[in-house]
Amino acid sequence: MKKSPALKTYAIAYLIFLYAPIALLPIFAFNDSRVIAFPLSGFTTSWFVEMWNDQQLWIAFKNSLTIAVSSALFSTLLGIFGARATTRYKFPGKGGILGLIMLPLVLPEMIMSMALLVILIGMGVKLSIFTIIIGHVLICTPYAVAILSSAFQSLDRSLEEAAYDLGETPASTFRLIILPLVMPGIISSLLIAFTISLDEFIVAYFLGGNQTVLSVYIFGQFRFPQRVPSIMALGFVLVCLSILLLTIAEYFRRRGIAKTGAKDTGGFL
Amino acid sequence: MTTEKPTMIEFRDVQKYYGDYHALRGITATIRAGEFFSLLGPSGCGKTTLLRTIAGFEDISSGAVLIDGKHMDGVPANKRPTNMVFQSYAIFPHLTVAENVGFGLRRDPRPASEKAKAVAEALEMVGLKGYGARAAHALSGGQRQRVALARALILKPKVLLLDEPLSALDKKMREQMQMELIKLQRQVGITFILVTHDQEEALVMSDRIAVMFEGQIAQLADPETLYRRPNSRQVADFIGTMNFLPAKILSENGVVEVEAQGFGRLTLAADQVMGSKTTEGTSIGFRPETATILFDGQVATDRETLATIEEVVYYGDMTYYDVRLDGTEKPMRLSMRNVFGRPVLDIGTRTRVGWSPGALVLFR
Ligand SMILES: Nc1ncnc2c1ncn2[C@@H]1O[C@H](COP(=O)(O)OP(=O)(O)O)[C@@H](O)[C@H]1O
Ligand SMILES: [Mg+2]
């Protein structure tokens, strides 16, 4: 295929548009001025110290982490059940049920949050981290089902039968054969769900009550100009963490592929 | 010829429906202990389904499957004394060769050192000595198949089930594996049940063959009987090549008098008469090698008929001639072994064809 120069220019412009703002984060995170503007005035690490000493930030961070880990675990677990059911069994209403599971993918989060808020308040449930987790599991589960379905789909049915044939029970077959072979999918699902939950704003804002999470806290801080540099520092830390996370995910994915000799199809990440 | 061995597998009127689809239509048969048994038939006739009812992967709709005298109704696959070599081999890709082969020994109470020895022995038996530490996914097709065999045989099952195990291999490899499988079966003495759509493979390997069409067993016999005395035109067509000529029955009392196109009046013994429900009407059948072209000076050992050569296909060791016997409409295929110094005849040559009534089969 011949590369068109117009397409190349477009691709480069696209990448700059996408990533240049992120490149500004480290620049201003280390800039010795409370004003976010060029020219730069000098180098400092004091914004990181300020960030580190921000007690509110720590609370929000811990909340976010708790929510993201719980949502990732629950939605992946539900995803395993869902993917297994849809790829292995036939049952009436399968298409409809699957459609309902996948619905949050296209439903505006705002609508979902409002609906949940009305119901939870109506039921007298106190808004907290727990209610955010409920919302996030709802959002993350479709992704988990999609990722895991493709992992389960590519599993040769006769591998399972071979294990039964050699004396294993359905439970031990799941543990010894199926689980190891879909592990790359499970790791992908955990990471995707974790990431989605971590930077989710609307549900967290609606259902959080007086509990603040990272995304909501950061947004709130932009009202105070003098706080912005330390938020830049926080952003820089988050970018580094994301890169680290993606590297780990890719490492596990490649290792899974190398171990089973499957063809590398580029992966989800 | 063979001494009667005890029964290993018994099918009693086995019926299997997939929804409305009638996949197995009353299978009744027995497979003997220590036998190399093949299920042969065209794709979709239910061979795999029948094999899977033995393994316990497929519930039957009615009837019974017995293994070594025991009803298998409600016995799950992991509790049956059978092991299977899957068509895809189903090698666990995340395990090593040794872990694959030793997989079935997980619940074996023997110490690890003894199990390792058993694995090494099994690998040696299939010609993979020293391959234990390799990653299973890095093996070639032939090697995977050997791992699958070792993995199944290490448990010393009463019955080994093989679903088209050779179909993924190239011709040379396939022929080599056929010989190895035969040897292996003699060595271990386990009942082998092979599913194949390749009639040659079934003939070469089996003690007995069940020919299946559309969920039914059409004929169950040893290879020679199947070849020489197929009980229907369908079986005759599926196994090797058979020529057919229209015929009419004149009389029958113990022996059968027939008038066959090209062959004239014949007397056939009762065992040459196959009562099958053909829609083609009564016909005489013979195999390509049972009639011969008579070269100058050769005399027929039995009967002869004049014919014209219409097509010649030269194969090196063999020549196939399509000849039209005088008084017939369509050409018959004859296969002749080439002999040094004897010419290959040309199309259009008039020749004599020697044949013998004993080699004919009557389908009615
Ligand atoms: N799980 C199934 N559901 C529905 N139909 C099936 C199933 N398995 C097999 N069949 C049908 O049963 C018939 C026999 O299949 P099979 O035993 O696999 O044939 P083969 O002789 O080629 O091994 C085929 O027509 C196939 O489509
Ligand atoms: Mg089959």
From TrEMBL, chain A:
It is found in: Cell membrane. It is a multi-pass membrane protein. Residues 61-249 form the ABC transmembrane type-1 domain. Keywords: Cell membrane, Membrane, Transmembrane, Transmembrane helix, Transport. InterPro entries: Bact_Polyamine_Transport, MetI-like, MetI-like_sf. One of its GO terms (biological process) is transmembrane transport. The chain crosses the membrane at residues 12-30, 65-85, 97-120, 127-152, 172-194, 201-219, 231-252. It holds the Pfam family BPD_transp_1. Its main location: membrane. Coiled coil: none annotated. GO terms for cellular component: plasma membrane. PANTHER family: PUTRESCINE TRANSPORT SYSTEM PERMEASE PROTEIN POTI. Belongs to the binding-protein-dependent transport system permease family. CysTW subfamily. This is Spermidine/putrescine transport system permease protein. It comes from Gemmobacter aquatilis. The lineage of its organism: Bacteria, Pseudomonadati, Pseudomonadota, Alphaproteobacteria, Rhodobacterales.
Automatic annotation (TrEMBL), chain B:
Its EC number is 7.6.2.11. It catalyses: ATP + H2O + polyamine-[polyamine-binding protein]Side 1 = ADP + phosphate + polyamineSide 2 + [polyamine-binding protein]Side 1. GO terms for molecular function: ABC-type polyamine transporter activity; ATP binding; ATP hydrolysis activity. Residues 9-239 form the ABC transporter domain. GO terms for cellular component: ATP-binding cassette (ABC) transporter complex. SMART domains: AAA (SM00382). Part of the ABC transporter complex PotABCD involved in spermidine/putrescine import. Responsible for energy coupling to the transport system. Belongs to the ABC transporter superfamily. Spermidine/putrescine importer (TC 3.A.1.11.1) family. The complex is composed of two ATP-binding proteins (PotA), two transmembrane proteins (PotB and PotC) and a solute-binding protein (PotD). PANTHER family: SPERMIDINE/PUTRESCINE IMPORT ATP-BINDING PROTEIN POTA, SPERMIDINE_PUTRESCINE IMPORT ATP-BINDING PROTEIN POTA. This is Spermidine/putrescine import ATP-binding protein PotA. It comes from Gemmobacter aquatilis. The lineage of its organism: Bacteria, Pseudomonadati, Pseudomonadota, Alphaproteobacteria, Rhodobacterales. The gene is potA.
